[in-house]
Amino acid sequence: MSGNPVASPVTAKQFKSEIKPVWCPGCGDFSVLSAVTKALAYLALPQQNVALVSGIGCSSRLPAYVSVYGFHGVHGRALAVASGLKAARPDLTVLVAGGDGDGFSIGGNHFLHACRRNMNLTYIVMDNEVYGMTKGQASPTTSPDWAKSMLTPHGPGVPSFNPAAIALASGATFIARGFTGKPNDLAKLIVDAIQHPGFSFIQALSPCTTYRPEQNEWKKIVRPFDADVTADPIEAAQRIQADDGLSTGLIYQTRLPVWQPPNSISAEIEQLERGFQI
Amino acid sequence: MSSRDPNHPSPTLSVAITGSGGSGVVTAGQMLLMAVADAGLYGLMGRSAGPQIRGGESAVMLRTGDHQIDCLDDHFDILIALDWLNVNRFAEEIPLTPESLIVCDPESGTVPEAIAHQGARVMALPLNALAKGVTEGRVNMVALGVIAELLGLPRQTMLSVVDKALKRKGAGVIDSAHQCINSGFDQPKSLQLRSKLPTISVPPPRWNISGNEASGIGALRGGIRFVAAYPITPATEMLEWLAPNLEKLGGALLQAEDELASINMIIGGSFGGIPSLTATSGPGLSLMMEGLGLAVTSETPVVVANVMRGGPSTGIPTKSEQSDLNIALYGFHGDAPHLVLGALDIRDCAFTTEWAVRLSEELQTVAIVLSDQSQGQARSVIDPPPAAPAGHGRKLAQANEGDYLRYRLDPEDGISPMAIPGTEGCLYTADGLEHNERGTPSSMPRDHQRQLDKRLRKLVNLDSGPSWAEIRGSGENCIITWGSSSGAAFEAANRLARLGRATRVIAIRLLSPLPENRLFEALAGATRVLTVEQNHGGQLYHYLHALRLLPDSARMLARPGPLPIRPGEIIQTMLEQY
User: Fold this and answer.
1) Which domain holds residue A199?
2) What's the number of domains chain B is made of?
């Protein structure tokens, strides 16, 4: 992306709804809201031609706070709703948002297949390594020794899930990591993701001030990747595996065929019915 | 449902063909059905197969006559065995009488006890030797010639069907099939049937269609243009028919990663303004329940075509049962008013599915359409199916009409205009959380009460018109039924009437919301009421009882699948109970 999303003629404010978020003060998700609205403003997309789909969780509340068409569905199924919407209405710009539990645990299968299907969707996962709405349980991205949840008093005890690696292995064509402490950089990633033809995945590190206050330290240690985006999946895999999960930027981008159902009319129903006539 | 007088049907003939994998049972059955159709007649062909992926024993059951046939008969007139391998698995499904005719080849062994004990006449024919006498000859084609001759089908009709059905296989295959059929025709037969099929001089226009295909055509007639689904027996053929044909109409089918995805994908498609459907069977429907609740609450119209099979759990995937009524009615958590419809027969799969789409679109809610394996995977020669009532379509919001409230409460019928993405000035967020009129999540008691009332009002205010049920006959005896048991019920009522016991049948198509007043009226004067359904628990019976719609004396005939409910069984129950 060239230019600065902050200096767009259409204001980000126009993309904000009047509904007050349910999020805790200091929640990283406020920055994602800001970045999404800045990106939409920069792209000057007509509001009515954008749809924002989510599942359930703190971050999945996002659609109500953005002035576009929104769909706030059930837990884990945002990508499915969005894929159906995009297949039926390829003319719309479809964004999908949610949290790490929604996307990687209950919705994990849809994540794999959305990456593989490579429909033209932008998927933003606000990753805070915790279930916030149910008051602080371990998620698939929680480290094995995090012992603050009564549900897993000894820590989850299983290795955490590496979303970027899974996305790469599943065939995503745009993989990025952003940080809510850098909302303008995040906005740029979202612009690039929307402009990318195919499935784009952004893992937005978004601290939970309530259940993971230690994540407030992220702003001191999160840093950009020290290499530019690659189109080589092997290089991308090495970079993702070598990283501690706190480097940000566009990691991998490639062009692969975008899946969209064919759309051309060649018959009337009466012709189909004739096939049954004796 | 035929154009002829349904109260005085002429006799029919029933044929069962059995054989092991690769013997060509299903091919023979399909060609026989085509021949019946070409002869101007009607026919119903069901099939029974084991779980084998490829091959394995199978049986086709075909009933034919000069009127539309919506159920199998009590027994078969002919059983022709291409071999006897594993036939025991079908023995229960092929009831015979001493008048029935078993045609078999002694070379394949003696008639197994499971079949022989019914005391049918046996005619031994050298089926295998006749096939071997033809280059590349096949036993199933010899059998086809034998059956056609016994039924009284014209030889030329049978031979032209071969030309059509085997066109792609080339002249050699067609020629040997002709020779086999001719040898089956010409083989001297020591026994004959008591009657032959009638000759039709001017056949009416008819279709040859499976229930799954009929559901597919109904969906398209109703306006469905997006389908997302996961393969499942016995619904897959509906999807396989829809995939290429949706594309021809400018629509699309998306093969989902699972049923959780399929239901949510069609919710997405419908939110986008495109009428959307998924097809599944019991296990898939179970997985979809949460998504269906979302569709009810967000008021996103979607249609689920559920082709029932033996349940619960994986159950009997390849065989029929009417046991998903309970989940269709009550499977949701929370109070979730929605539509449930049941197709009465193969032809009605088209009408009922179309109607379900139109009702769902109009009421902006879920419609579950129940058909079953005995309809979906069976083929029938039918009169062209009628169109369903058109309804008013989906009520859409107009651009820039001021403050847009997606879930506004003021429409008396509860139906608030829906804005489709792309419409200017109507931005909103559809929500599965309880919400206020604007769609903003709300946990306030007042909003919950009002939105629940609104969603219920849409259903309560529905005037279904006469399509809610198919009602025939009169008298103090009354059979209430639904789905694929309807054909047997109508036939039972006809026979009871001929026995001097006038009987009416109420076959319910719109199961929810049930037009209670209409059912009450239809029951007026009925003193002996019997509910008939093919499940273990009597799901319809208990549903109607809970609504206090049945007289206390009402009895039920509820028997699980996979054996179809047969007319004689209904008559016997009626006579025993009353």
Assistant:
1) 5-274
2) 4
